[in-house]
Amino acid sequence: MDIAHDLQSIAAQEHTLVFPHFDADIAWQLGAWLHEIAKARGLALAIDIRTFGQPMFFSLLEGATPDNVNWARRKGNTVAHFQCSSYAVGLKLQQSNGTLADKHALSAADYASHGGAFPLKVKGVGVIGSVTVSGLPQRADHELVVEALCAHLGHDYSKLALAKA
Q1: How many domains would you assign to the chain?
Q2: Which residues lie below 8 Å from residue 61, measured CB to CB, with a gap of 6+?
Q3: Would 165 be classed as within a structural domain?
Q4: pLDDT in tens, 49-90
Q5: pLDDT tens readout for residues 135-152
Q6: DSSP string spanning 2-48?
Q7: What's the burial of 104, exposed, middle or buried (CB within 10 Å: 0-12/13-18/19+)?
Q8: 27 domain residue, yes or no
Q9: CATH number for the domain harbouring residue 68
Q10: Measured between alpha carbons, how far is 116 from 69 in angstroms, rounded to an integer?
């Protein structure tokens, strides 16, 4: 995996995957799509969609654990703090050999710099929340969210997917 290439790809994903508007119905549709895909693929996941301060959708699939719920919360907090994907934050920290604690004084109890939380961005508004999955390896968590956003927003996932690791 090439960190610089992944960061460039994530920036393109974040630039492209922007909603014209976002509301509770869209959160439900996005969450239901993620739930059905995860169920069909036999994935044990926590799915959490929230605007900052307000839960919009939550689902825990068979086999997921309380740890997955806590990881989702922590990764979502990272998006809220940095206004970008938790995977991008983690890759940047990896490049600088840093941690959230030493670089930003953020507690591991409340923040996680692992992939799986992606910013919900609305055109003309900015980042309003996050969509998060937890239960797979971090790169796969990130990519599942990107796949879901592409499906909902009508983008070709193959053109936005990260390069094969």
Answers
A1: 1
A2: 35, 38, 39, 43, 44, 45, 46, 47, 135
A3: no
A4: 999 889 999 999 999 999 999 999 999 999 999 999 999 999
A5: 999 999 999 999 999 999
A6: -HHHHHHHHHHHHHH-EES---HHHHHHHHHHHHHHHHHHT---EEE
A7: middle
A8: yes
A9: 3.30.450.150
A10: 12
